[in-house]
Amino acid sequence: MFDGYDSCSEDTSSSSSSEESEEEVAPLPSNLPIIKNNGQVYTYPDGKSGMATCEMCGMVGVRDAFYSKTKRFCSVSCSRSYSSNSKKASILARLQVTGKPPTKKAKVLQKQPLVAKLAAYAQYQATLQNQAKTKAAAVSMEGFSWGNYINSNSFIAAPVTCFKHAPMGTCWGDISENVRVEVPNTDCSLPTKVFWIAGIVKLAGYNALLRYEGFENDSGLDFWCNICSSDIHPVGWCAASGKPLVPPRTIQHKYTNWKAFLVKRLTGAKTLPPDFSQKVSESMQYPFKPCMRVEVVDKRHLCRTRVAVVESVIGGRLRLVYEESEDRTDDFWCHMHSPLIHHIGWSRSIGHRFKRSDITKKQDGHFDTPPHLFAKVKEVDQSGEWFKEGMKLEAIDPLNLSTICVATIRKVLADGFLMIGIDGSEAADGSDWFCYHATSPSIFPVGFCEINMIELTPPRGYTKLPFKWFDYLRETGSIAAPVKLFNKDVPNHGFRVGMKLEAVDLMEPRLICVATVTRIIHRLLRIHFDGWEEEYDQWVDCESPDLYPVGWCQLTGYQLQPPASQSSRESQSGSSKQKKKAKSQQYKGHKKMTTLQLKEELIDGEDYNFLQGASDQESNGSANFYIKQEP
Which GO terms describe its biological process (predicted)? Predict the structure, then answer.
């Protein structure tokens, strides 16, 4: 394991230079300008600077690439435009002296350079604006660092094992603090890439705070990196690959026998599995491919589905383009395990509304996605007691995911699917109904919000406040859906209040943002987007494929939205004020109802007793939502 170190040190680097020659930095050509660390520019032997500025449009570039012997212009058009402007100035000067009207030729000369100049100037301004936008976006993203964000605030991130759908979510193993890895040594002046041993000081999702061996309690050179990156290896990889192990320059003087030091430090220590990188690669292989056709919810009419085509796949997330979109801009983002996508023919098989495409045949290269690739739903028995049209329940509003509302089952479909509408805000034609499966964690029995101290949104226009289910059911002549028909499973998900993660903004599903778990009710998580007001929070299931570990965006190459700044929030002030006004008119209701009160107001004749949720910090264990009261 230490052969690599024995063959290379900062004093004897030449012995390994041949092995690492492909990683050496080739010297830059002498005819290119080189910028020093202090910002000064090297000059040519003749004393001329290697950079030049176009006298026509102001563009800055490499001097050798400029036009003409004098290197005054960036292109032929700029040179000609400058020349034409000079002629124009000469003509105008003569006119001022002679007072004679300009000739036809003079008019042409006067007009043409102006057009060329304006065009060149407009193009130059557009280039500057694009560069400014690109730079601003880069600064916004590069300015955010998960490591700095977590360190400066002592945050804790949700472990990778909480996300079964994410890469390595099911095979993360016991990677934890004090695990040793081999990483590139950045505290080194050798011309080749060398490595050293580091230990994990802190884990935050995929990201780890590492400290080089030999620094003991000195955190001066600690650094964050993604454990799943290609530069992180298990101990022993360097020896097997013939790579040199070199101690950091800062501590090179501390020991004379580094081999003995490593043997002592690494005896009994844990490291990554030998096939860790292979597992990472395998877990990032996705069965969905571009050109596959699926049925997906119509984002403008939730009551129906449409055919869409997979445009791209990033980390298991699909960019779907609706098949009728001619310019390929009418798209929808979701995860491949999302309950919103289905195989072709699904809508017809269960009786769901479907918008038929105007395209009579498949486009070249497009093909139907195999049905087995979609997420499976739990089989249910609809032959016995089952949901019926008109039954009342509580449901997360898909158009406002921060609220749980009074809702009604409007239609019972096949295979356990239900069409649900939000009371008080439904369209007459049912165009705003939405589909949930009977086992969906987004629907709840009557009384769920009251017993778990969650704000229940009453029907719009309902005036008898505070809202009481017993009165409302009697007034509407309705019955509540039986408690036993709802999903009662609560997995041991591992989330805790305050944990950081990366979460999809489901109201704008192409965005993935820095987020925090702020409440836990059984399997239900309250997700807060850092930097935004609470009204933008969303209720999400603990097994939602729209939640990801810290570092997922970096691993997959997806763009992460950093916490909103004050300016970003102010830009949304108009819509925010409208939302706040609407929210202030909603009744928040009593925060708690005793079990005795609830039993006295039993709605459906069933003698069920809610199991009240544990505290937010402790409600992550395996349990049932509800328990039947024994006679």
Answer: chromatin organization; negative regulation of DNA-templated transcription
